[in-house]
Amino acid sequence: MARSLDGLILAPVADQAPGQVGTRTRFAYHEEDGGIWAEYAGGDVVRGRLVGTREGDRLDFRYVQLKTDGTTASGHCVSTVVELPDGRVRLEETWEWESGPGSGTSIVEQITGQITGQVTGQAP
């Protein structure tokens, strides 16, 4: 099993469609006793939250977000946690919107040099 996500900052490696998460979005992950959750923001997302479970290297979670245009969106995602050769973590994701049509795949990877407070707008 790849290492814990607790305290890690991850970012998409590519932009999705307009109005969705993109390379400027940052996810601050937390993990405890098989539960995972994260706050995210950046790009077209003002504020987002995800919550779910981890079994081995598989994450299963729901997400909800407020976008810059004032709309909200929600969905479901299943991710595989992969440890990269340089020691960073990658999530290989398959997602689907539950608030409207659409589905796809994405990859987010651990970034270094940022603290959680920079993602959530709170003091670290």
TrEMBL record:
It comes from the Bacteria. Pfam families: Avidin_like. InterPro entries: Avidin-like. This is Uncharacterized protein.
